[in-house]
Structures are given as structure tokens and as C-alpha cells.
């Protein structure tokens, strides 16, 4: 492994098909790694080759069918990655020239970061060879690769044809076959390449040491490689997911950044959901979501859930890591501590009743202390942007903040459970939570995987009881004939005005709505609000049917949970599943 | 990593190539016209948990999604192994195009219908056999496929050669294609050459990849003595000598000229073959490449190759079958390709085996093949049990279960270690059958009254394996073996024995979006219970913390019914058991007391020695420093410093006096500490522990010391009670008595 986590190159070699000697290794790094080398020339020569080259000859220089493709193969405990190239041209001794620049890796290592570059290198060498026989002429006995001179045009021609060549190169660059005229014999116009050996050597060393290289070959070509890891695609996000930055995003902004990205950045704070970010930043939701996905892809953002005091959290089986991982607990201490507790820097209104916070009055005086503390702990992985303790007032008064002990923090995590809302949990432990920012406490736990969010799914008893949901569901599923309801229509009073609104929806929406509408309303004055309510009910029942959790329902309907609950209650019996 | 939890065989085809003195030959391949995708890897789909965000796209989006899914699902059902034939790729394409709203891929659909008509005949029976799990998997697959095609379509130009090839072959079908010229974009001859490595590369893993397409196999070369296997017990003297020869001449390039004992063994009399190679052609997604290749090689390729080698050694099986297939192909060459293939797979067991393997692997099913009247099974194990919660947004198979303690969890999933059949905790677990016992017995082709059949009939979710062993009179090792077998082959899942006292929660992995669909099924099984959704609601929303299941059981008569329902829910991954884990917590009071005692002792000692004042005071100071865990900060500036100073200090008490910053702790205020490994406690820790139980009744103390080694958060109390045979009351008594000193955590 190199320093950047890329697998290192064990060996590189360049092989050609020699007209008389067959497939042979022209150069290899380190010396002696592929074929035995003369020890007297190079003291670093390996004692024995890594593997038996003869047995893989046919894969290093394969038949034309495999050429110009990325070919990798296993040999003993190594994987050889190469891009065999085969060029037809009448001036070659056998009418063709074949070569391959191969990279050797450990078999079990991940070679994906290299593969694209191996391909690109192969293509570039191909072009160089086609343009100026750079490779074939680099050989000491390069005459071997060509037909006897007399078949060629007179030497004088080439000296006068620099101009012609340039034009021709443009046309010919991609062609497979070459005419004789393109052959250059004058050294002056050919590319400057000291030796292939030194080039290979340099690629090998630079990639292994720096994961990148910049090696000029001639005025127009260079070997520029930078390794990048191939990361899995980011997950599909939901509107209610809450992104939180794991790096200092604002320091990375670049004038060339995507405008949406720049726009949404200030709102990524571990509190706003994606949908809310898009509203706050006045950006398109879809674009916002994609931006966040990009950030996730590059691991600069992690995903949380909407923080609410009605949420439940519970420990996962990873909770023991809090004690076993030597860093986690102290990082947690540093992250969650707050001299003023959770509500210290809120303009306290309603929430006051949640927990009696004895330190509240002192809020302004202590926050400065926190401010300094935060600026010091740069090693925190998540940026505490939002809870900006802007209050830089007095520093005269000294304040003692007892650091919550690790055992206490552990205990606090442990006493969360699947049925306990944060509100209740806070009430039970308010004494211990005096100097802890609950939101940060939860965020830390969720991000480290030691607690998980217990989601709450409302389920309507109607789907499971009054209607035989099974048959309904099958008819729903049956895309071929969705218009054939199997249910007993008599139990479903379908009123006319409902039909009007539900025209857009398919049959079973009407059905559900109808089912929910057993108690008919006849308030004509409130018709408009009633319509709205109807539409909300339709939407809600659709979501209910899919068994979505409250976060999703609230985001989808753009309503606070309280109102959703009200609608649910109007619609009939319902219960919740905590999962 | 995420999608690694989902099966994705990405198998394009299976080839059998042999080498004889006449050269290489591609004997058979399946499917007859594999798709090649232009050497490209399978695009990796986004993992979609909730496809619907209908507020932001068209309002009927999810309807369409669902319909698409169904359609997709049906097309796969009708088209039967669509993806085994050239139509597969195109059908993916067409569906994807629709879901992207960019119109139907005409080419794709035509191919699709063509493929269907052929295939309908071929795999009629197979279609009927498809079980529910399979359907679900297909669905999942399609979810993934559906999302990735947009990507695939953009590179359409790349793809066109393969598609047109597929299309061409379909239109040719009517005019009967009788010969395969190209496979995976190569000439057939070249393919056989490609997969015929020189002898040095034989008898070990073989892998060649061309762009994103990999040829994976284990080429088997005959030994120089004419044997295919290296048998450990030499049968004859001749054997021995020839093997010696082999060792000495191991550097020889190939064994083709080495057939001296050609006529000596009757079985190899007519075998001109010196190498055979069963090759699996795959196109795994780029980032999963190594994982998928390893998986396939380890579980299928290598095992199958060794099986063939065994049969070849025993009865010249591969050569005989190869001859048969080649003769058949000659004979049937006038027929259309698919008829040829149909006839060949009927007549040759090797060809049939390849076809069955292909179909089963493509569907991530268990491969059951019969060679010489012996049943063999292979599978790539499917990950459905997790010890920790996988990252959010990770897609899993529905019905996956969670348990951090189950010894069955990693069964067969670790590539590099054999299944641990001797975990001692295993015997305390019970099994829940995933299928009806009789059908399992039938499926595994056990005798109706054999040991294993009787064992399977006895399995009950409330009986642990050790109890089953006693009841059945079987040896416990045998029971473990059977249990492992059932779990490994996807017939059963292991849980702690069901009890009404157990606490269950709705699993975070519960497939809740299926809840109404499964409701029907639940109702069929338990017509007298509340509907599934309400039942789950009952379990999950008790007052302030999860409670034992018996709180929802109305009366004793309902017990069995409810427990059956619990077993059903466990099996379907809806619920998971909450287990209790214990940690020993040393409170500061205890520490102070111990400290005082030590002080006293020291003073006594000092009085006796009356000398060396200064050194013992130093000792005192360091002692304070070591146990003091940063409680009060005096000065603002010291604050960040003391945070970092306290890092990791309170947990490793083995190295005291490393803590700086004692200046600010004038007040001796101790902090609670949680012991991670009470079993190997230091002297001081042992004093603390002793202090914790001081003054407790003897039985509590005894039980405490019995359980002490488990108070490390690793072993669950539920398991302990079975294992150490401790009653619930005693445990409760202990926990109440030591309330202050034991921190309990509940998770799965």
C-alpha cells in the first residue's frame, strides 16, 4: 500500500513481439522481476523473477482479437494488468508491431484505480508509435522490426517533408495501417525519449511514492497520471434526510463550483433536511439532492435524520465501541459538552418546559468559553457550524464546567430505548444532561453507529381490518387490469363529490378515500378547506398504504407531525409501529 | 460495499473447453447465445430504498414505479430466465428506457419477445418451481437494474455491436442458426484458446479478464502419471514411481507428450484428453469485481472443477461426456441452435449440469446437480443475517435478521475460514424452519425415516439444540452438524429458544413496506390474531420500554398461538430479540472508599516503618492522578487541554500516572469507570469489585462472581441464563441488589 491507500505496483515491464525472437521483455522494473537480468549491471536485480514469464507469453502479447483492450490475468499470486497493442503497417518486418506495457500487482489487491490509466497509456503509446515509431526505434537493434531499407522511399524524401508529415499526422492518427511515407528516418523530427526504460522506471517510482506522475515525452505528449479511488455510487437520498458536513466545506468553495452547490452550502448544518435546504436556499429540490449526493460520494457529508424531541433512539450492537474504541468516548466528550446545555443559546420559548435548566440564565456569560474550546478542537470530524456560539461577550467571569464522564455518557446512551422519546429521556436524565447538547449527543451517536433512530410508522387499522387488504393489494399490483376491483363495493359508500377530486388518482385511492369517509361531512361553507383536507387525506392514505414513517409523511405533505396526527385521527383508527 | 449484501452473480455463461492431442476444443457452452455487453462490466445500480419522492416528480410516480416493477417481474417470469439468453440485456434496457421516460427501446422489446418464445419451451418446469424467495429476489434485482439503465443507455454506441448481434441472431432464429461462430465477441476457436492456459497455469485458479469481462476457472490438467487426482494413498508401486518422475520433471512445459502409461489403466484407455476447463464468464461491476470473482471461485468454480476431476478420475466422466456432446453436435448440426441445445442437454448429463448451474447461479439459487446418480449441491451463500446494523441506505434482502451473538451468523460467509461448527454456544440456540419440514425433507432427498428426517420433524423454535439432542437421542455433535447444514442451505434460521419472557422489538431491518402484502399471508396462518400491522404495533408500542412478549399475550391458552406468530415474525425478519448485556460500573463512591482503605493501610504501614516519608507521598500523588478523571476545571485556559488530557485515560487503568494536569484537581473528585474486562482485573480493580458487592447476601455474591466474567458487554444475559442454568428470579435479584454497579444495555 502506498501512503494514499492505493495498492502499490509490484513491477512494471514493457514487452514487444520481436520478429525473430518472439515475445520478449525489453525492460522491467525492478530489474530481474520478470525475466532474469544481468546482475553485474544493476545491483538491485532481484534474485529470481516473480513468476515464469514463458507461461504467460500468450497473454502478454495475445492474438489481435484481444489487442487494444484492457487485459488482466492471474499468474501465481500476481495480477498482470496490460493493454496489448498491435499495429499493422507494411513497413514492419512482419507487417505488424505488437507491444504491451504491463503493471504487476498483488493478486488480491484492488487495481481499479490503475486500470483506466493503463488503458490510456497503451493508447498513447500506440499513437506515438504510429506517428513516429517511437517504440520500435527505441530498440538498439531496431532494424529488426522493419523491412530492409531498400524497399523504402529514398532517404532524402523525409528530410524535406516535415511540413507534409504534420498534416498527414492529423489524418492518420487513428488509423490502424500506415503507409511507408510516414516513416521518419531523421532523428531530429522524432520525439525525444531518452529510453523506454527510464520512462517506465519513473512511472513506477512516482506512482508508488506520490500516486501521481508528470513525465514529458515530447513537446506534445506527456504521461500525466493521478490515481483516484473508484468509489461506489452514493445512496439514493430522501427528502427528509439531513446532511451534516464532515469537513469544513466552506473552506473548500471554489469560484468554479456549481452555483446550486454554493447556494445550498450555508444550510448544510445537521438540522435542515434536504427539502428544507432546497427551500431555504431557493434551489431546485432535485438539484439540491444531487449536490448532496455528490458531497456524500466524496465523503464530505454524512446523513442524519431530522432532530425532534419526539424521536426515539436506541443503542445498537456497536454500543460497546464507545468503551472499546479509545478515541470515541473522549471525542464524544469534546463534541457534546456545552456549558449551557441543549437550550442555552436558543431564544427560549416553548421548549423551556421540557427541561428545567438551571444554567440557562448564565448562558451568555459562558458561551465565550465554549467558543474558545471549539476553535481548539480542530480534530473534531463534524463541523459545529450551526451551533455557532457567537456570543463573544465577557470573559472576566470564570466558570467551572464539569466534563460529563465517559461512564455517564455511556449510561446516557444505554438508557435510550425503542419506546422512549427524547423528550422522556431528557426528563428522566435532565440532571446528567445539564452540560450536554442533546442534539450533538444524538448526532454523535448516530454517526458513529452506536445508536440508531427508531422510526415510527403509522398504520391504519382500516387496511388490515375493514377491507380485505390482501385482495385489494393484488388488484393494485396487477398492472394489467387495475380497474377491476375485487372488494365488496356495498361497504364503501362512494359519494359523488369525492369522485370529482379523485379523478386523477386510480381506483383504489377512491376506495380508500371512500372507506375513510364513512362519516360524511355536509358542511357546505367550509367546502374549500374541506377540499384541501380531502386532498391531504388522499395523499396521506397513499403514503399510509406504503407504510412510510412519520418523517417521510411530514416532509411529503409539508405538514408538522401534529397536523398529520390530526388528519390521521380524523381518518379513523390508527396505530404506530416503532422499528 | 453496500450492495455486496445482495446476491449479484453477474454470470454471462459457462464454457467447457478441453485439450486433446488434436488441439483445443470448446465442447459446450451455455447459454447457446450468451450476451456479452461489449465486454463491459455490469453497471452498479444506485441503492434505492424508497423510490418514491412523489412530491417532487410527477404525482403518479410511485404508481408507475410499482407497475414497472410488476411488469418487470412478470416479464422475467414469463420470459423465464430472460437473462440467461441474449434477450436478457435488452429487456433490461427497454425497461430502463421506460422508467426514464424516454420511450421504449424498440430493438430491445423485439429481442425480448423473441427470447421469450424460445425459452418458454425450454424451462417450463423450471418456471413452476420458482418459489417466493426467488420472486422477491428478482424484484430486487429489477429495482437495481431499473435504476442503472440510464447509465447504460448513455453509452449506447459502445453497446451497439452486442445488441445488433443479439438482434441478428434472433431474426436468424427462424431460418435456423445451426452454428455458433462467435462467443462473447470472439471466434469460438479463439475462446477455447484463450481459456486453455499452458500447463504451468493449470490446477490453480485461472482468471483472465478482457475489459470488464472475466473468464474464471480452475483448469484441470492430467498428471504425468496419467492420474487426474493426486491421491494420497498410493495404489501401486507404479504410481509411486511415476509421481516421483513428475516431481523431478515438473518444469517441463506441458504434459501433452507424456502418455507413457497410456494403455496401462483400463479407464484411461481411450482418453485422449489431457486437460479440461470449466470456465465461468462473468462481468461483475467494477467496484465489486474482486468480491464477486472470489465468491464465485470459492463457492462454485473450484468445487465444481474438483468434482469433475474426481469423476474423471473415477470413470473418465468428462472425456466420455465431451465425446458424447461433440458427437451430438455433429449429428444435430442441421437443427436450429436451440433445438440442438435442448437435445444435448437432454442427453448429456454434463451439458445438463452446466445448464442447471447457469440457471441456478443466475438466480442466486442453490445448485442441485446429479452426476453419476449422486446429488451435489453448491451455492453462493446469501447474506441475510447481520450482527450489526448495516449503514443507512444499504439495500438488503428482505427478511434479513439481526443478532450480534448468534454463532450461526457468519456461517459459511467467511471466505477464508471454514465454518465454525464447534462454537460452544451453538447448542443453546434453537432453529426455526424456513419451510414446511416435510418439503425440506423431500428437497434434501433424505429418506423418510432417516435420522435427519426425524430430526427435522422434531425441530421446534422453543427447543434448543441441546434439548433436541436429548429428545432425539442423537449425539450433540451430530445435531450441531445437522443444524449447521440446515442453516447453511437456507432451510432454517437460528435464534435463541422462544420464550414468552423474551423481549422482542420490531427489527430496524423489518420489511415494513411489505407489511400489508404479508398481512394476507399472516392472516392465513393466524386467522385468530390481530392483523400483522396491528400485531407489530402491539409488540412495538408498549409504554416506556420494550417489554417481554407475554405482556401482550391475553391468557395462558393463547401462549402457543402467540409464540407461533412470534416465530413467523422472526422468520420473516419483522422482529428481533432484544438481549441484555451487562457492564460493571465502578462508581466514584466505591473508588473513594477503596482509596481511603488503601490510605489507611499505607498509614499503618508507614507507622510501622516510620521512614521514607517523601517517597510515599509521591506515591500518593501519583495515585490520585491515576484515578482522577477530570471533573472540575478551575481555569478557562486549561479547559481544552484537560479534555485532550483525559482522552482514553479512565479506561486503561493498567497504565496509571500518565495523566497530566493534576494541578487543576485540588478537590479529589472521582469519576465512574466502566470495567471492560472484569475477568482480568488489576489488583486495584479487584478491590473495587469486591467493594461493590460488600454487604450483599451470600447468594448474590456467589452469583455475582459466577457472572463476573460475562460482565463485559459481550455475552447476553439471555444466553447466560441458558448456558449457566440460572433462573430469572436470581438474576433479577442480583440486578436489583447491584443496581448502582451494573449498567445494562439492551440491543440485539
UniProtKB/TrEMBL annotation, chain A:
Q: Extract the ranges annotated as region (Disordered).
A: 348-390
GO biological process, alphabetically ordered:
cellular response to amino acid starvation; cellular response to nitrogen starvation; negative regulation of TORC1 signaling; positive regulation of autophagy; proline transport; regulation of autophagosome assembly; response to xenobiotic stimulus; urea transport
Matches recorded under InterPro entries: NPR2-like (IPR009348)
**Which terms does the record give in the GO molecular function aspect?**
GTPase activator activity
Q: Where is the composition biased (Polar residues)?
A: 378-390
One Gene Ontology cellular component: vacuolar membrane
UniProt lists the family membership as follows: Belongs to the NPR2 family.
* PANTHER family found in the cross-reference section: GATOR COMPLEX PROTEIN NPRL2, NITROGEN PERMEASE REGULATOR 2/TUMOR SUPPRESSOR CANDIDATE 4
Q: What is this protein called?
A: Uncharacterized protein
* Organism in which the protein naturally occurs: Ogataea polymorpha
Q: Read off the lineage from the record.
A: Eukaryota, Fungi, Dikarya, Ascomycota, Saccharomycotina
Automatic annotation (TrEMBL), chain B:
Chief subcellular site?
Answer: membrane
Residue ranges annotated as compositionally biased, kind Acidic residues, are 612-621
Where in the sequence does UniProt note compositional bias of the Polar residues kind?
Answer: 151-171, 637-656
GATOR1 complex protein NPRL3 C-terminal HTH domain ranges (all copies): 682-742
Q: Which positions, given as ranges, span the membrane? A: none
Stretches the record annotates as Disordered: 108-171, 229-267, 600-656
Keywords from the named record: Meiosis, Signal
Q: Where in the cell is it found?
A: Vacuole membrane
**Membrane topology designation:** Peripheral membrane protein
* Classification via InterPro entries: HTH_NPRL3, Npr3
Q: What does this protein do?
A: Mediates inactivation of the TORC1 complex in response to amino acid starvation. Required for meiotic nuclear division.
Q: Which family does it belong to?
A: Belongs to the NPR3 family.
Q: What is this protein called?
A: Nitrogen permease regulator 3
**Can you name the source organism?**
Ogataea polymorpha
> What lineage is on file?
Eukaryota, Fungi, Dikarya, Ascomycota, Saccharomycotina
Amino acid at each position: 500500500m502506498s501512503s494514499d491507500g492505493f495498492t502499490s505496483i509490484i513491477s512494471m515491464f514493457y514487452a514487444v513481439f520481436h520478429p525473430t525472437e518472439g515475445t520478449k521483455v525489453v525492460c522491467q522494473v525492478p530489474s530481474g522481476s520478470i525475466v532474469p537480468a544481468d546482475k553485474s549491471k544493476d545491483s538491485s536485480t532481484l534474485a529470481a523473477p516473480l513468476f515464469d514469464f514463458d507461461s504467460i507469453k500468450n497473454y502478454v502479447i495475445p492474438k489481435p482479437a484481444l489487442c487494444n483492450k484492457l487485459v488482466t490475468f492471474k499468474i501465481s499470486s500476481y495480477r498482470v494488468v496490460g493493454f496489448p497493442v498491435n499495429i499493422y503497417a507494411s513497413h514492419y518486418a512482419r507487417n505488424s508491431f505488437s507491444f504491451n506495457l504491463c503493471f504487476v500487482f498483488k493478486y488480491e489487491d484492488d487495481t481499479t484505480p490503475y486500470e483506466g490509466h493503463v488503458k490510456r497509456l497503451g493508447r498513447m503509446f500506440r499513437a506515438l508509435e504510429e506517428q513516429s515509431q517511437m517504440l520500435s526505434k527505441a530498440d538498439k537493434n531496431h532494424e529488426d522490426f522493419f523491412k530492409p531499407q531498400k524497399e523504402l522511399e529514398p532517404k532524402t524524401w523525409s528530410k524535406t517533408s516535415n511540413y507534409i508529415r504534420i498534416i498527414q499526422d492529423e489524418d492518420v492518427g487513428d488509423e490502424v495501417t500506415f503507409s511507408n511515407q510516414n516513416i521518419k528516418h531523421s532523428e531530429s523530427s522524432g520525439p525525444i525519449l531518452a529510453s523506454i526504460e527510464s520512462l517506465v522506471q519513473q512511472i513506477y517510482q512516482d506512482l508508488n511514492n506520490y500516486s501521481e506522475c508528470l513525465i514529458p515525452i515530447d513537446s506534445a505528449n506527456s504521461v500525466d497520471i493521478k490515481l483516484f479511488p473508484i468509489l461506489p455510487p452514493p445512496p439514493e437520498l430522501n427528502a427528509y434526510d439531513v446532511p451534516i458536513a464532515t469537513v469544513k466545506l466552506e473552506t473548500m468553495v471554489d469560484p468554479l463550483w456549481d452555483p446550486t452547490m454554493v447556494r445550498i452550502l450555508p444550510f448544510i448544518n445537521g438540522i435542515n433536511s434536504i427539502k428544507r435546504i432546497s427551500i431555504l436556499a431557493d434551489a431546485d429540490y432535485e438539484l439540491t439532492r444531487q449536490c448532496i449526493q455528490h458531497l456524500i460520494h466524496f465523503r464530505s457529508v454524512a446523513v442524519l435524520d431530522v432532530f425532534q424531541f419526539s424521536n426515539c433512539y436506541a443503542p445498537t450492537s456497536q454500543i460497546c465501541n464507545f468503551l472499546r474504541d479509545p478515541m470515541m468516548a473522549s471525542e464524544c466528550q469534546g463534541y457534546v459538552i456545552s456549558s449551557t446545555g441543549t437550550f442555552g443559546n436558543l431564544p427560549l420559548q416553548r421548549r423551556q418546559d421540557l427541561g428545567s435548566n438551571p444554567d440557562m440564565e448564565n448562558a451568555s456569560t459562558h458561551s465565550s468559553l465554549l467558543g474558545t474550546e471549539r476553535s481548539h478542537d480542530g480534530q473534531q470530524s463534524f463541523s459545529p457550524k450551526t451551533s455557532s456560539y457567537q456570543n463573544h461577550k465577557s470573559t472576566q467571569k470564570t466558570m467551572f464546567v464539569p466534563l460529563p464522564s465517559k461512564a455517564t455518557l455511556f449510561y446516557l446512551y444505554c438508557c435510550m430505548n425503542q419506546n422512549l422519546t427524547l423528550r422522556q429521556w431528557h426528563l428522566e436524565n435532565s440532571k446528567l444532561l445539564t452540560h450536554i447538547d442533546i442534539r450533538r449527543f444524538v448526532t454523535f451517536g448516530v454517526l458513529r453507529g452506536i445508536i440508531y433512530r427508531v422510526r415510527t410508522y403509522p398504520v391504519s387499522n382500516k387496511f388490515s381490518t375493514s377491507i380485505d387488504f390482501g385482495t385489494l393489494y393484488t388488484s393494485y399490483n396487477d398492472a394489467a387490469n387495475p380497474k377491476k376491483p375485487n372488494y365488496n363495493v356495498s361497504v364503501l359508500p362512494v359519494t359523488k363529490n369525492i369522485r370529482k377530486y379523485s379523478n386523477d388518482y386510480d381506483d383504489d385511492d377512491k376506495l380508500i378515500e371512500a372507506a375513510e369517509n364513512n362519516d360524511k361531512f355536509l358542511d357546505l361553507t367550509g367546502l374549500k378547506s374541506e377540499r384541501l383536507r380531502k386532498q391531504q387525506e388522499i395523499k396521506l392514505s397513499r403514503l399510509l398504504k406504503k407504510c412510510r414513517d412519520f418523517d417521510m409523511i411530514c416532509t411529503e405533505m409539508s405538514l408538522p407531525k401534529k397536523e398529520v396526527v390530526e388528519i390521521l385521527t380524523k381518518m379513523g383508527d390508527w396505530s404506530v409501529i416503532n422499528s | 460495499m453496500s450492495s455486496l449484501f445482495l446476491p449479484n452473480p453477474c454470470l454471462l455463461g459457462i464454457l467447457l473447453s478441453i485439450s486433446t492431442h488434436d488441439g483445443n476444443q470448446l465442447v459446450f457452452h451455455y447459454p447457446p447465445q450468451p450476451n456479452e455487453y461489449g465486454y463491459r462490466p455490469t453497471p452498479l445500480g444506485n441503492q434505492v430504498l424508497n423510490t418514491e419522492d412523489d412530491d417532487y416528480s410527477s404525482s403518479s410516480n410511485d404508481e408507475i414505479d410499482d407497475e414497472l416493477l410488476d411488469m418487470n417481474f412478470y416479464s422475467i417470469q414469463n420470459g423465464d430466465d430472460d437473462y440467461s439468453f441474449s434477450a436478457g440485456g435488452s429487456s433490461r434496457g427497454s425497461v430502463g428506457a421506460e422508467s426514464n421516460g424516454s420511450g421504449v427501446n424498440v430493438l430491445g422489446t423485439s429481442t425480448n419477445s423473441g427470447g421469450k418464445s424460445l425459452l418458454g419451451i425450454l424451462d417450463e418446469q423450471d418456471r413452476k418451481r420458482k418459489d417466493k424467495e426467488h420472486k422477491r429476489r428478482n424484484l430486487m434485482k429489477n429495482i437495481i437494474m431499473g435504476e442503472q439503465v440510464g447509465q447504460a443507455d448513455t453509452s449506447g454506441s459502445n453497446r451497439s455491436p452486442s445488441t445488433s448481434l443479439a438482434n441478428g441472431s434472433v431474426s436468424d432464429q427462424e431460418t435456423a442458426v445451426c452454428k455458433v461462430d462467435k462467443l462473447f465477441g470472439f471466434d469460438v476457436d479463439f475462446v477455447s484458446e484463450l481459456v486453455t492456459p499452458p500447463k504451468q497455469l493449470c490446477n490453480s485458479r485461472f482468471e483472465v479478464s478482457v475489459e470488464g469481462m472475466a473468464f474464471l476457472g480452475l483448469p484441470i490438467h492430467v498428471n504425468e502419471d496419467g492420474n487426474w487426482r493426486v491421491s494420497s494413498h498410493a495404489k501401486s508401486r507404479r504410481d509411486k514411481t511415476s509421481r516421483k518422475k513428475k516431481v523431478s520433471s515438473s518444469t517441463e512445459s506441458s504434459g501433452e507428450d507424456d502418455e507413457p502409461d497410456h494403455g496401462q489403466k483400463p479407464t484411461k484407455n481411450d482418453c485422449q484428453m489431457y486437460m479440461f476447463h470449466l470456465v465461468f464468464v462473468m462481468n461483475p461491476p467494477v467496484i465489486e469485481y474482486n468480491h464477486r470473482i472470489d465468491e464465485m471461485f470459492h463457492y462454485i468454480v473450484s468445487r465444481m472443477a474438483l468434482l469433475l476431476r474426481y469423476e474423471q478420475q473415477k470413470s473418465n466422466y468428462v472425456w466420455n461426456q465431451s465425446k458424447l456432446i461433440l458427437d451430438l453436435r455433429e449429428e444435430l448440426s442441421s437443427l436450429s441452435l436451440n433445438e440442438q441445445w435442448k437435445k444435448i442437454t437432454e442427453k448429456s448429463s454434463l451439458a445438463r449440469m452446466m445448464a442447471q448451474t447457469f440457471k441456478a447461479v443466475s438466480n442466486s439459487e442453490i445448485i442441485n446437480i446429479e452426476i453419476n446418480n449422486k446429488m451435489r449441491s453448491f451455492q453462493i451463500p446469501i447474506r441475510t443475517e447481520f450482527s450489526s446494523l448495516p449503514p443507512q441506505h444499504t439495500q438488503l434482502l428482505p427478511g434479513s435478521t439481526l443478532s450480534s451473538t448468534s454463532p450461526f451468523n457468519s456461517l459459511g460467509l467467511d471466505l477464508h475460514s471454514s465454518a465454525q461448527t464447534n462454537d460452544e454456544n451453538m447448542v443453546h440456540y434453537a432453529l426455526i424452519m424456513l419451510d414446511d419440514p416435510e418439503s425440506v425433507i423431500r428437497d434434501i432427498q433424505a429418506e423418510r425415516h432417516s435420522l435427519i428426517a426425524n430430526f427435522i420433524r422434531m425441530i421446534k423454535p422453543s427447543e434448543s439444540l441441546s434439548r433436541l439432542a436429548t429428545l432425539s437421542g442423537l449425539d450433540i455433535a451430530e445435531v450441531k452438524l445437522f443444524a449447521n447444514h440446515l442453516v447453511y442451505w437456507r432451510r432454517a434460521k437460528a435464534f435463541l429458544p422462544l420464550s414468552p419472557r423474551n423481549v422482542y422489538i420490531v427489527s430496524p431491518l423489518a420489511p415494513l413496506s411489505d407489511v400489508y402484502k404479508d398481512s394476507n399471508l399472516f392472516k392465513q396462518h393466524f386467522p385468530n390474531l390481530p392483523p400483522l400491522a396491528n400485531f407489530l404495533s402491539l409488540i412495538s408500542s408498549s409504554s416506556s420500554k420494550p417489554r417481554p412478549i407475554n405482556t401482550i399475550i391475553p391468557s395462558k391458552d393463547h401462549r402457543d398461538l402467540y409464540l407461533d406468530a412470534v416465530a413467523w415474525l422472526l422468520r420473516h425478519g419483522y422482529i428481533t430479540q432484544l438481549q441484555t448485556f451487562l457492564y460493571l460500573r465502578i462508581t466514584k463512591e466505591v473508588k473513594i472508599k477503596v482509596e481511603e482503605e488503601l490510605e489507611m493501610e499505607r498509614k499503618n504501614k508507614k507507622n510501622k516503618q516510620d521512614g521514607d516519608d517523601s517517597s510515599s507521598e509521591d506515591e500518593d500523588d501519583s495515585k490520585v492522578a491515576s484515578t482522577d478523571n477530570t471533573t472540575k476545571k478551575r481555569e478557562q485556559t486549561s479547559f481544552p487541554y484537560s479534555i485532550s488530557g483525559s482522552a482514553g485515560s479512565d479506561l486503561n487503568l493498567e497504565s496509571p500516572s500518565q495523566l497530566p494536569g493534576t494541578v487543576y484537581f485540588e478537590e479529589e473528585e472521582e469519576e465512574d469507570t466502566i470495567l471492560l474486562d472484569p475477568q482480568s482485573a488489576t489488583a486495584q480493580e479487584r478491590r473495587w469489585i469486591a467493594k461493590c458487592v460488600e454487604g450483599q447476601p451470600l447468594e448474590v455474591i456467589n452469583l455475582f462472581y459466577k457472572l463476573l466474567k460475562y460482565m463485559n458487554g459481550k455475552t447476553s444475559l439471555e444466553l447466560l441464563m441458558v448456558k449457566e442454568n440460572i433462573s430469572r428470579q436470581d438474576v433479577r435479584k442480583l440486578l436489583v441488589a447491584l443496581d448502582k454497579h451494573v449498567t445494562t444495555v439492551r440491543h440485539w
